């Protein structure tokens, strides 16, 4: 049983390759860039390359993509070629090869901020994303292709909409300038972030469950301490709700010189993934507080090993991003 991992030189691709290799699983990594975890260098836009890469493959994890930070450096057709045409090549060749499961890494990449004065959004798989850039448009279109081939050709497909797991500083200048990266990312584990180790775990569970599921779409985000009853209050005063639910959080934050976001506009809900995939994420906000209390590292060893990879081959004034 050989697993194909696309995007093996990227954050998630490398994390998958590291984990699968450590488990002595048969795995083949492909990417447009060479790396220690890339077995075949080529583009998923190239149908011949994809057909060659699919030879002998029984399972596919499709993590390769152009990301949001590429919007300013690539044109729309680059996104169409990679995120849509590349995905089409992969699903068609996966069908032809008779693979047993196909897992597609997707995203929210959408405008989900409620209007001023409204409660925070409770985001489940039933919420319809509204794309705000070409990245979001192409990821949603690629999801549609995956679903089409699941329905039309019987290809077992699981789509995983992952929260943020990148280690780089936020692309929002207000967050980037107002909070350290660690502080901001710890805050995000309350509502819109997930550790890369848990993302890998979700993908491996999805590979196993896909044949029985047939087609499914799941949110992969750290387990939130909030409930739907907290949505109005976290929009008004998030620190108060956090302290009510997790007494002592404020003092632990103060000991580090950290601060909580004053308001949260959305909460990604992972309940369906935990129930149907049997996924058990470990690295949530409660874990962060436990680590702060014991003066331990709260990021996973895998996250530290993969580290920051960036998105471009050049540096910009705004860190990894060409625009603020």
From TrEMBL:
Q: Which residues form the NAD-dependent epimerase/dehydratase domain?
A: 3-209
Q: Which Pfam families match?
A: Epimerase
Extract the InterPro entries matched here.
Answer: Epimerase_deHydtase (IPR001509), Lipid_A_modif_metabolic_enz (IPR050177), NAD(P)-bd_dom_sf (IPR036291)
**SUPFAM superfamilies per the UniProt record, alphabetical:** NAD(P)-binding Rossmann-fold domains
Q: What superkingdom heads the lineage?
A: Bacteria
In its UniProt entry, what is this protein called? NAD(P)-dependent oxidoreductase
């Amino acid at each position: 049983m050989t697993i194909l991992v696309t995007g093996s030189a990227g954050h998630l691709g490398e994390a998958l390759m590291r984990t699968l290799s450590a488990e002595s699983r048969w795995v083949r990594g492909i990417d447009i860039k060479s790396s220690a975890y890339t077995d075949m260098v080529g583009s998923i836009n190239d149908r011949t390359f994809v057909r060659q890469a699919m030879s002998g493959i029984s399972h596919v994890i499709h993590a390769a993509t152009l990301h949001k930070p590429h919007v300013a450096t690539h044109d729309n057709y680059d996104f169409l070629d990679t995120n849509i045409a590349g995905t089409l090549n992969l699903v068609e060749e996966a069908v032809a090869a008779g693979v047993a499961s196909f897992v597609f890494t997707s995203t929210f990449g959408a405008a989900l901020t409620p209007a001023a004065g409204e409660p925070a959004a409770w985001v489940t798989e039933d919420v319809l994303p509204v794309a705000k850039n070409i990245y979001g448009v192409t990821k949603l279109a690629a999801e549609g292709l995956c679903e089409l081939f699941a329905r039309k050709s019987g290809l077992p497909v699981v789509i995983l909409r992952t929260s943020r797991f990148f280690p780089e500083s936020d692309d929002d200048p207000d967050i980037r300038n107002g909070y350290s990266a660690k502080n901001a990312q710890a805050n995000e584990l309350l509502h819109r972030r997930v550790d890369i180790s848990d993302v890998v775990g979700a993908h491996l569970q999805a590979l196993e469950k896909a044949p029985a599921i047939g087609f499914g779409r799941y949110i992969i985000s750290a387990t939130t301490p909030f409930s739907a009853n907290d949505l109005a209050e976290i929009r008004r005063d998030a620190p108060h709700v956090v302290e009510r639910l997790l007494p002592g959080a404020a003092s632990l934050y103060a000991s580090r010189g950290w601060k909580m976001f004053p308001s949260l506009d959305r909460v990604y809900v992972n309940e369906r993934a935990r129930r149907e995939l049997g996924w058990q994420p470990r690295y949530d906000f409660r874990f962060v507080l436990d680590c702060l209390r014991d003066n331990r590292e709260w990021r996973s060893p895998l996250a530290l090993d993969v580290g920051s990879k960036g998105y471009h081959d050049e540096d910009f004034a705004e860190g990894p991003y060409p625009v603020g």
